[in-house]
């Protein structure tokens, strides 16, 4: 199967529409990712097929939650190489996306991606989540917070839930073995104003990899003392 077929078939499996313009955007994105990855460390995944599966298609499984649509305002926390925020924006053009990362050089790459792909209503932000979560311009202002960041759910929830408005959602993209993590995070999620609504196990198309999407609804305001400083969050998780 050719590289482009992997992406087309995978997107079809996810019941998403992909016209030639969107397909071209993914091609350019991949090309930029590989080019920039030789200068700065963005991803360990450099094989064409692997990028399609483990970055693009994995990011797009988030549409299976049914929470990404229309004119929603979305923040991607710890976006890294732009996952899942940029693939979401390519497919669902109407959403507004903020790509948040603490590494400036990654955001330079993402600024180039946004420019080359001609994406509108998408912003890169060089900030730490625990600082921005206390900024009133961003606190509880988003319909959806998403994250593929590698952190345990109790820690990730303190970074992400403060951004979500009441009745909005935090969607954590996790591996298949997340049951223990969910149990450990129940208290933190409740304290931060969230409630686990769904756990969707999904196979990434064109692979045997099973991931889970944890859908957490924001049911009450996050207490003003959260998020705490990063050292406290990691040293003493809720």
Question: Summed up, what is this model?
Answer:
The protein is α/β, with parallel strands linked by helices and 238 residues long. It has helices spanning 3-13, 20-37, 48-60, 85-91, 104-116, 129-132, 153-160, 179-191, 230-235, and strands at residues 73-77, 96-101, 122-126, 142-147, 164-175, 194-203, 210-218. The mean pLDDT is 94.
Written account of the structure:
With 238 residues, the protein is an alpha/beta fold. The chain has one domain (3-235): Vaccinia Virus protein VP39 (Rossmann fold, 3-Layer(aba) Sandwich), CATH 3.40.50.150. The protein is built from nine helices and seven strands; from the N terminus they run H-H-H-E-H-E-H-E-H-E-H-E-H-E-E-H. The chain has helices at 3-13, 20-37, 48-60, 85-91, 104-116, 129-132, 153-160, 179-191, 230-235, and strands spanning 73-77, 96-101, 122-126, 142-147, 164-175, 194-203, 210-218. Strands 3-2-1-4-5-7-6 form a seven-stranded mixed beta sheet, with helices on both faces. The radius of gyration is 17 Å and the shape is globular. The N and C termini lie far apart (46 Å).
């Amino acid at each position: 199967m050719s590289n482009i077929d992997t992406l087309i078939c995978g997107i079809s499996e996810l019941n998403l529409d992909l016209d030639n313009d969107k397909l071209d955007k993914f091609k350019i994105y991949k090309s930029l990712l590989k080019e920039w990855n030789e200068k700065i460390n963005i991803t360990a995944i450099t094989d064409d097929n692997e990028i399609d599966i483990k970055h693009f298609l994995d990011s797009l499984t988030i549409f299976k939650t049914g929470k990404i649509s229309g004119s929603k305002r979305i923040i991607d926390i710890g976006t890294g190489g732009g996952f899942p925020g940029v693939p979401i924006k390519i497919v669902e053009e109407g959403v507004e996306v903020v790509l948040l990362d603490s590494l400036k050089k990654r955001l330079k790459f993402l600024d180039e991606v946004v420019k080359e792909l001609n994406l509108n209503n998408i912003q890169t932000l060089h900030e730490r989540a625990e600082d921005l979560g206390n900024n009133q311009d961003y606190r509880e202002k988003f319909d959806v917070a998403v994250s593929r960041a590698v952190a345990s759910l109790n820690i990730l929830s303190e970074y992400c839930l403060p951004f979500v408005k009441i009745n909005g959602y935090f969607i954590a993209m996790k591996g298949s073995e997340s049951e223990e993590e969910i149990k450990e995070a129940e208290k933190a999620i409740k304290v931060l104003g969230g409630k686990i609504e769904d756990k969707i196990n999904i196979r990434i198309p064109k692979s045997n990899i099973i991931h889970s999407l944890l859908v957490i609804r924001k049911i009450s305001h996050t207490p003003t003392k959260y998020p705490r400083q990063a050292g406290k969050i990691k040293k003493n998780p809720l």
